[in-house]
Write a structure and sequence with these properties.
Rossmann fold; 9-stranded mixed sheet; 459 residues; Ribosomal Protein S5, domain 2; alpha/beta
Length: 459
């Protein structure tokens, strides 16, 4: 039998190569390519089989109550998880440094312990005393919360066996070290081995495990892509350093919807959930101001009311400036072209500034109509009523197109006290109790929002 040819593997990213190289062609690391042991063959015809530890059951005989979710006590987090944490599940929470991941999880274990359940918080980035100080500052101290400052995987598993918690936090998975695995700390091989061991622990003991993950400079979860496949739930913790708003966004969820969003606010005494974040995205004023329009955007399955503001100023420059904040710049440029080309709103000789309020970011096209009306409002110096919302996508022909979840958007506007909604024509059945104006194009939208008489329609 011919001797198998050797292969080489990068200990940092796991890339395999038929020959040795000094630098890994995949991750670019130097000196990480070593000879890999030959893989043992399995599944050969005639090979001996292994008896299963327990026989397979009919699906009708499986007890589904063992997977009933347990609420964490934080309603916004439970909203994203589905109804709570499922026993034996593995949750990956990823976010940028300093966004508040550890603060949120400290509050979570405290709420968990208040319900008479034991929690274990394993930190590999701080000492136990440092975690205790932060817990005292945020009011997250409880006698049923256990702390362990460890980075060795075997020691962490021993702590879990000794404490016997129902919820275990590992902060973070990149700092854990598996003694029997190759690779550098935080490398692909190490992360895969650690995650596999902790997943096995969760499935065999019923302990719910939450892994804290780092993100790369591109915003992706650090480590192998298989990490997201191995866990049951992947959550992204997002936030702008210039804003107190924090959002937990579901990316993957085997137990519920994967597009839910939970809102939080970072304060000096910790992180607090925000059940109704509308006030953060609306500017409260007594009088109507030209250049503002209200819309309802969907962030996952959650409708959020947002305010769009526009300002135009004369300029002598051949190429007037266009500054956009919180919106998609190419889409705003397209709307400016549609305004000038379809309804003669002249914007080619002025500087245009368009922004959202409260640091909100809007990428969906349902805000097109609000952007167009805000720019038209400031050009005509006529304010839109504060009780009006505008929802719809604007096409290049000047038409107003339908958008998804229009009923939920209008219902949210009605709940918050808005009395008039401008929506695309053909939107179907909408909630009652709020005046609905269905428009087919920008001409009708401008008349409905800005003009009291059709004869006065001019810019």
């Amino acid at each position: 039998m011919a001797k198998p040819r050797p292969s080489y593997r990068c200990t940092a990213c796991g890339h395999r190569s038929p020959k040795w190289v000094g630098r890994c062609p995949d991750c670019g690391e130097w000196g990480t390519v070593d000879e890999a042991p030959a893989a043992a063959s399995s599944g050969r015809p005639g090979a001996a089989t292994v008896a299963p530890a327990s026989p397979a059951k009919r699906i009708t005989e499986v007890d589904a109550t063992a997977a009933d979710a347990l609420p964490t006590g934080i309603s916004e987090l439970d909203r994203v998880l589905g109804t709570g944490v499922v026993p034996g599940s593995v949750v990956l929470l990823a976010g940028e440094p300093g966004v508040g991941k550890s603060t949120l999880l400290l509050e979570t274990v405290k709420r968990w312990a208040e319900k008479g359940r034991r929690a274990l918080y394993v930190t590999g980035e701080e000492s136990a005393a440092q975690v205790r100080l932060r817990a005292e500052r945020t009011g997250a101290v409880h006698s049923e919360v256990f702390l362990a400052a460890e980075t060795d995987l075997d020691t962490v598993l021993a702590h879990a066996e000794q404490v016997a918690p129902t919820l275990m936090i590992v902060d973070s998975v990149q700092t854990m070290i598996a003694g029997g695995a190759d690779g550098v700390n935080g490398g692909v091989t190490q992360i895969r081995t650690v995650t596999t061991a902790l997943t096995s622990l969760a499935k065999n003991t019923g302990i719910s495990v939450v892994l804290v993950g780092h993100v790369t400079k591109e915003g992706a979860v650090a480590g192998p892509r298989t990490l997201e496949h191995m866990v049951d739930v992947v959550l992204a913790f997002e936030g702008d350093k210039h804003s107190a708003l924090r959002m937990v966004r579901g990316i993957k969820n085997r137990f519920g919807a994967s597009d839910e969003v939970g809102c939080f606010e970072q304060r000096g005494d910790g992180i607090h959930e925000v059940p109704d974040p509308t006030g953060l995205f609306l500017h409260h004023r007594d009088d109507d101001v030209p250049g503002t329009a209200i819309t309802v955007t969907m962030d996952g399955r959650r409708p959020l009311v947002a305010e769009v503001q526009a300002l135009v100023t004369p300029t002598q420059m051949a190429s007037p400036r266009r500054a956009v904040s919180g919106l998609d710049s190419p889409r705003v440029a397209m709307i400016l072209a549609v305004l000038e080309g379809r309804i003669a709103v002249k914007v080619s000789d002025v500087e245009v500034y368009v922004a959202t309020v409260g640091g909100m970011k809007i990428t969906e096209p349902a805000a097109d109509l609000a952007i167009a009306l805000a720019i038209g409002s400031i050009r005509r110096m006529k304010a839109l009523p504060r009780s009006t919302v505008a929802i719809g996508e604007v096409g290049l022909a000047g038409e107003v197109r339908r958008v998804g979840a229009i009923g939920r958007r209008v219902a949210e506007a009605k709940r918050l006290g808005f009395r008039h909604a401008i929506v695309p024509a053909g939107s179907g059945d909408l909630p009652s109790g709020i005046r609905i104006t269905q428009v087919a194009d920008l001409h009708e939208a401008v008349r409905a929002a800005l003009v009291t008489s059709v004869d006065a329609y001019s810019f």
